[in-house]
Design brief:
Structural class of chain A: alpha+beta
Oligomer: homodimer
Order of helices and strands of chain A: EHEHEEHHHHHH
Strand content of chain A: 5-15%
Number of helices of chain A: 8
Radius of gyration of chain A: 17 Å
Largest sheet of chain A: 4 strands, mixed
Shape of chain A: globular
Strand order of the largest sheet of chain A: 2-1-3-4
Largest interface: A-B, 39 and 39 residues
CATH topology of the largest domain in chain A: Glutathione S-transferase Yfyf (Class Pi), Chain A, domain 2
Distance between the termini of chain A: 24 Å
């Protein structure tokens, strides 16, 4: 590792939890610095200039360099470790689930949790409200795709636990806070409990 | 390479172009198989069962294995090549831009192009119509973030052209089809022309 590792985070964010969970599995210490996203603490001029011009957490600070994007930070931490498959196809397949998470899972499963559990349904604007049904059905389609994969394989990519499992676990295990019923996805439930039982696991 | 490489694609999709551009830079031949997404050809039972249960293109077929997600397919193709930085931080920073593309750029810059140039603005439903303004401003914020980065560096990640540039080029160079005005982003324009002048480049 090069220099101290500082995780700029809001501890309630699943994206930040991904990085803590990766670090825990690798036994790598992180210094945590908390920001309240609901209070706009990641949109201050200091944060935008000094941590992330995109105004978002998490950011992993590595010495004097800053790495935004949760899945990229997990990759940096795990690079060269057992959490990234050595096989070329399995490595790309792991990334396939991580890119899919950003496009198909996070904007639905995580956003509905954010809107319901943090913003509050009565505080949503009209544009958000008009997306509720589409995000619910897209989120269910995402969970169904995971369920089908996990009916055939123990883990999402390759033959072993990888970053794909960590990055999908983060918001899937709290999907019910967004109004999703996980009892419809038994293979996802089996996998959630397998992840949580691994040595090195840490809770949200 | 293991076995024949088949790109399941709709040639009008920027996500498919990313893979063709990566393969061109690596001088790797791809067999192309075209599907008309507007005619639902990626939602047939045959496609869902045999190519991608997620009903989306592109999918890179590697022998008898199938790899969905454009950025993951680019990574598979480029693994071990000069298109992925050898330095650990630069490699993660490349992935940072590629994850950011899926969450912040593609749903705005690419979706507005799709809605305007393919679906047609008069065919949009109310939920889509209510998102037009937000997608315009989020897309402009994404282009601005790229412009700031490209005011400081020649390429998006590390010191050399990488998959980050290929994956962001695909939809950025046709952003005007989505109603974005690239003249506001001079560093993005400089970078677009640098990418297009590289040996090995192929047009959309």
């Amino acid at each position: 590792m090069d220099g101290q590792l500082i995780l700029h985070e809001d501890a309630r964010s699943g994206n930040c939890y991904k990085i803590r969970l990766t670090a825990a599995h690798l036994d790598v210490p992180l210094t945590r610095r908390n920001y309240d996203i609901m209070a706009g603490e990641t949109r201050t001029p200091e944060f935008l200039a000094g941590v992330n011009a995109n105004g978002r957490i998490p950011v992993l600070q590595i010495g004097d360099r800053f790495l935004p994007e949760s899945n990229a930070a997990c990759f940096w931490l795990a690079d060269g470790s057992h959490l990234i498959p050595g096989d070329r196809f399995a490595r790309a397949d792991m990334l396939r689930w991580m890119f899919w998470e950003q496009y198909n899972h996070e904007p639905n499963v995580a956003t509905l949790r954010f809107w319901r559990a943090f913003v509050g349904e009565d505080q949503l604007n009209d544009a958000q409200r008009s997306q509720l049904a589409a995000k619910k059905s897209s989120g269910e389609a995402a969970l169904k795709l995971m369920d089908e994969q996990l009916s055939r394989t123990t883990w999402l990519a390759g033959d072993s636990f990888s970053l794909a499992d960590i990055c999908l676990y983060a918001y899937t295990h709290v999907a019910e806070e967004g109004g999703f019923d996980l009892s419809a996805f038994p293979n996802v439930q089996r996998w959630l409990s397998d992840v949580a039982r691994l040595p090195g696991h840490v809770p949200f």
